Amino acid sequence: MIRFIVKRLLGGILLAYVVVTGMFFFLKLTGTDPARGALGLYATAEQVATKRIQLGLDRPILVQYLDWLGHAVTGDFGVSSATNAPVIDLVVQSLPVTVSLAIGAVVVAGVLGTLLGVLAAVNPGPLDKVLQIVMVLGFALPNFWVAIILALKFGVELRWFPATGYTSFLSSPGGWLQTITLPVTALAIGSIAAIAQQLRNSVVTVSGQDFVRTLRSRGLSRTDILLTHVLRNAAPPALTMLSLQFIAALSGAAIVERVFALKGIGSVAIAASGASDIQVIMGVLLFTVLIVVGVNLVVDILYGALNPKVRVR
Amino acid sequence: MRQRLRLAAVVVAGALALSSCAGSQGGTAASSAPAAGSDAASGSAVGSQTLVLGNAGDIPTWDPGEMKEGMVIHYAEAVYDPLLRKTADSEIEGNLATEFTYNDDLTELDLTLQEGITFTDGQPFDADAVKANLEARKAGAGSASETAKSISSVEAVDATHVKITLSEPNPGLLAGLATYTGFMVSPASITAGTAGTAPVGTGPYTLDAAATQQGTSYQFAARADYWNRDAFPFGTIVIKVIEDFTAMFNALSTGQVQFMYATADLVDQAKSAGLTVDTVPGEWQGIILQDRAGTVAPALGEVKVRQAINYALDREAILKTFYAGLGQVSTQTFNPSSDAWVDSLNQEYPYDPAKAKALLAEAGYPDGFTLPLSYSEGFQTPLIPILAQYLSEVGITLEPISVASFSNGGLDTLVGAPSFVLSFSTNIPPWTDVLNKLTPTSLWNHFGYTDDTVAKFIADIPKASGDEQKKLYQDFNTYIVEQAWFAPIATLENIYLSDPAIKVTMQQAQLVPSLRFFAPAA
Description:
The structure holds 2 protein chains of 2 kinds. By secondary structure, chain A is mostly helical. Chain A has helices at residues 2-29, 34-39, 45-54, 61-73, 87-122, 126-140, 143-157, 173-207, 210-217, 222-259, 265-274, 278-306, 309-312. In chain A, 40% of the residues are buried. In chain B, 30% of the residues lie in helices and 21% in strands. Chain B has helices spanning 2-21, 27-42, 73-79, 127-139, 144-148, 173-177, 187-192, 245-253, 267-272, 303-312, 315-321, 353-362, 383-393, 431-437, 452-460, 466-482; strands spanning 50-55, 84-86, 92-94, 97-102, 108-113, 151-158, 161-166, 205-207, 217-222, 236-241, 259-262, 276-288, 327-329, 370-376, 397-403, 420-424, 486-498, 502-504, 518-520. In chain B, strands 11, 12, 13, 16 and 17 form a 5-stranded antiparallel β-sheet that branches. The longest helix of chain B has 20 residues, at 2-21.
């Protein structure tokens, strides 16, 4: 198992490296000019030229890349060219917001999706049909639209939850819960549908397999079969779906954060791209990639735990 | 005492403005306002009330020399005092500098400074501080550097007297000294290079770093010993950064913020939510026909073609349908309250497709031509089909070119664009507008187009003053409209929404009213 984890970990790091490197050169190719972005329209050509030297943009691109990489490895992600704030500070401030939303959405989606999926699978007939329609609807609703509706209904009209803003968990757990409830709901709705749909289908498929029939013929109770045998075999695809939903929630968070005025990694990235702030974009990207890789690793390990055959591959 | 009278006058003006446009206050409320105003003026204790302002943008730097104009003025005004200040009508009056006089040829400006004022780091505010600031502003890369360009030297005559010498007269200087150019930063922090990260001013508030979360919410605490305390009645100012208009509106309607700059589509909702709606004429929107020499789009080189484009637009209809009637149709690009505005010019190009076709034929384009038009993806997108429709009726085919963003680097994409749609600020004094778009080196005149008449106006206006200058501005404006450098559609109303718990006096020709114009509702 340890060998397996180490292998996956190294694979993940390689993936992160490739993505980040690709992005670095891509950003350079698009011709965005952080010096002009930082100084704005009124700066003279000479001021921009001086700023370029200050930011080290006059060096060969390979040198810039190696410099960035060398510092990043030691945990130094540079400073924002637009605001001079250390990139790590921006990430540390905004990451908890986005991660709260993404994890919250995945937990809610995991729990509710599993319940709905299993419920639909074991109740063929009208309930299954209704649930399937609801699931498709939930999947089809764009989460920014859901977010706007939730903000208007439960934030502005009923005032059950704050319409905008974020309270950190450390300063007030209750406040934190209040501020993330609506955004998490907006993000989770599509994921609930996706997971439920996936699980329903695999539970139905697994239930039709020979070994289940054999188990049933041996007189095991339906609940026993479902919980210990069917779900164990039906879970892996749903687990993959769950990890995909986490990534979707991470990207969807950018829009939902905007609707609820939360300063998460998404809004940092949007502001940074508006100012051609490459250091910040790279920092945000690196952390996002590391999170995605980390989540995939955890899923892989769970996979391995559920199904020993995977470990041999 | 003059100070208080002035404040009372501002309050009356504000009350009148509020009662006339919002309709929420009757005549009695307006007439009782002066009493409330003088009460506020006589109380010297710092108020306990908090003012929460919504702001669509963060403050990337605290150095006024690096700031780009717009709504960041609220952040700056909380911590910095300007040398001069603007009234609600954008007249200039004294502030940290109590007196300001020009010499006869408008190349020297003498300032008399207040005594006994210190920066929050204990440094004295004196002539040396002014000198250090103006020199820093000149070297900066922000919008203040444009105004400061004409300053050739600053001399500290004695502790309370400063002489500013100009390389050429600059009609925009006083307004600049009332905002970004004139914001006074502690010379110590300029020398130390920390002006951008830690604001040290003489302003009415100090940044409360402990209660501030960068990029999200900024809190300012009132200074009890501030020299002009009465003009800033709130004990605490909070500025919340909310980029999305809908989110900001949600925050406003649930009391999380008390003031926002808004868009036309929010007005009806705001009224039904019981919010105060105020408007001030602000931006003009329309087409900048910048390839006036016809280098890229030869047709635009013909004045008759540019006039034809102006005749082809049904401004009344566009204003009513696209802008919800919030503004006035316009053929000119200056502020309606400025010296350059000429009411009758708006009759210059009535909607007349037949005339447009005739002009095109006279110019040698009887079958029309194709006009490349750049526009900002997003809020201008719905305007494009409307323009395309009107222009196609006279034979002009629109070739829309979408530009992801006009901000910063995006500006480069407009270099070489023969024409583009823009929403553009209008200013008092109009010299700012001249510098923005009419000189050969203007930011928004990428082809650097000019002619002898324009060059003469640009040379003569700074040297003139009073009525003579006003006439020159108006003649310049008339010439530009006749030459059809632009195809403006309308001068729009800037829209502001506020909580009824506060009272905001509208200010002409500034994107958001200065902090001084905010007060608790009586």
